[in-house]
Design a protein that fits this description.
485 residues; alpha+beta; 11-stranded mixed beta sheet; 5-stranded mixed beta barrel; 6 helices
């Protein structure tokens, strides 16, 4: 009886005019906002794809799904376990089953980057101090690339690659088209060196002369998605997915119509000229992105200018003097390789108290090629390797042969792998602290630890597939050449 009386008391209290008015004022706007957003979403027809394009990427589970498992003993031949290209520097990558490889790296890799505008006092020569440079009252403004080192939530920006479909039809968003490339065979390539064979159906580039409204005319498009949460977001009900759609290979007509600009972009010690594509992003979406990342300065998006790539100047192949090598927006070298056994060994060396212990994800290291079949750190000794297929043309027509890579140096590591690839949360210590204790193995890279290797393709065009065998042509010692002296 006491419980019933108490219930009646609360019902009478909650139904008083004052309480009802309070509930209406507080809860009403929330319900209205949620209802409007739901109604808009329910009436919005979500396209299954982009006309004339197919989604590029691995269909099915990741090839890294078994990365934490110790594989059975094999023949000791290293093989490609997984492939990743990263269309926007420091954003989430696209896993592939096969990919084109260019002199500057995997197709679409580090093609774009976000940058913030930084300012510092300009310097001028002071006659009273013998011409020494001293700060002036003027300021210098410079676009500088950003990464997960300082903005870890970049890891939450999901990317999709949509490329012109040679079959002339639109791929569905789910189950997007099967193979990544139309190449001679879906099987891994063996180590024979053949010439004069016919290649079937290379990936089409798109009609550059077509109108700017056709994504196939722009070489396809890059889709970027991220979850935006407004300040007032009760129970997460107002979280929305923001989508950006960007041209992969914009035509001259589009560049003129959108008024692209060419500006200097600071990437470490380099200041290449790059295409500013910020005009492709809606201003409201750009502000949401800036808020989401935690960037306080102006934010912009840049694309590699194909006519002005950056030069690779360090750790070059000694047997190719005078030859030029180029790279896009990667830190320094075109292609990064990492052994999964090296990651598992690093995981085993983590302290028992580390949150990531037993589940160190290889994706944290953002390699292009993950390999299996060799012992931990075996890649440290490689100097020249063969993997995949080189494609070329001579007097007899198209040919294919083995693709050679120069292993430039070990990969010097920073704190970026401390960022969890799925949460965008950066650990204060691991795995960088452990690497600092166990992997300071290159005197040239000190004080940085090393894990994985950087490579340079010794060809202009090729194909790489999961399962391809790696043939090690040369082994030797590496000495890392510093970027900053």
């Amino acid at each position: 009886m006491a419980a019933i009386a108490l219930l009646q008391h609360y019902i009478e209290y909650l139904t008083t005019p004052t309480v009802l008015l309070t509930i209406l004022v507080v809860v009403g706007p929330i319900l209205y906002t949620v209802g409007v957003e739901w109604a808009i979403a329910s009436k919005t027809v979500k396209p299954s794809g982009f006309s004339g394009c197919r989604r590029l990427g691995l269909v099915g589970p990741s090839n890294l799904i078994t990365q934490h498992e110790q594989p059975p003993l094999t023949d000791g031949i290293p093989r490609v376990k997984a492939l990743f290209t990263y269309p926007i520097k420091s954003c989430r990558g696209v896993e592939l089953s096969a990919t084109e490889v260019e002199a500057t790296g995997l197709k679409f890799d580090r093609l774009m980057t976000f940058a913030q505008l930084v300012s510092k006092p300009a310097k001028k020569a002071d006659k009273d101090q013998g011409g020494a440079a001293v700060p002036s009252e003027e300021w210098q403004h410079q676009w500088r690339f950003i990464t997960q080192r300082e903005f870890p939530r970049l890891a939450l920006l999901r990317t999709e690659l949509w490329v012109p479909d040679p079959r002339g039809r639109t791929a569905k968003a789910n189950g997007h088209g099967g193979k990544d490339l139309q190449v001679p065979s879906s099987k891994p390539r063996t180590r024979s060196r053949t010439r004069g064979s016919t290649l079937v159906g290379q990936l089409e580039k798109g009609d550059k002369a077509a109108g700017s409204g056709d994504w196939t005319a722009q070489g396809g498009c890059l889709v970027v998605r991220f979850p935006f949460e407004p300040d007032f977001n009760p129970l997460g009900l107002r979280t929305q997915e923001v989508k950006l759609v960007l041209p992969l290979v914009p035509t001259i007509e589009r560049a003129k119509a959108k008024q692209y600009t060419t500006e200097d972009l600071s990437i470490w010690k380099d200041n290449p000229q790059a295409l500013n594509l910020t005009c492709e992003i809606d201003k409201v979406a750009l502000e949401k992105l800036r808020y989401f990342l935690g960037v306080s300065n102006p934010l912009a998006l840049f694309r590699v200018d194909p006519n002005k790539p950056r030069a690779v100047t360090r750790c070059l192949p000694a047997d190719k003097p005078g030859e030029e090598f180029k790279v896009g927006f990667a830190d320094a070298f075109p292609v990064n390789i990492l052994g999964l056994a090296s990651v598992r060994k690093t995981d085993a060396e983590l302290p028992a108290t580390a949150e990531v212990k037993g589940k160190l994800d290889a994706r944290r290291f953002r390699a292009n090629i993950y390999i299996e079949g060799v012992e931990a750190f075996a890649e440290d000794e490689w100097k020249k390797i063969i993997v995949g297929t080189r494609i070329g043309r001579d007097k007899d027509g198209l040919f294919e042969c083995d693709a050679e890579y120069h292993v430039a140096c070990r990969t010097a590591r920073c704190t970026l792998p401390n960022v969890h690839p799925d949460t965008g949360i950066k650990d204060k210590n691991e795995p960088y602290t452990t690497l600092g204790k166990t992997r300071k193995v290159d005197k040239g890279a000190l004080p940085h630890p090393c894990l994985g290797v950087h490579t340079i393709p010794l060809f202009a065009s090729g194909i790489l597939r999961v399962g391809d065998e790696i043939e090690v042509l040369e082994k030797g010692e590496h000495v890392y050449e510093k970027m900053f002296k």
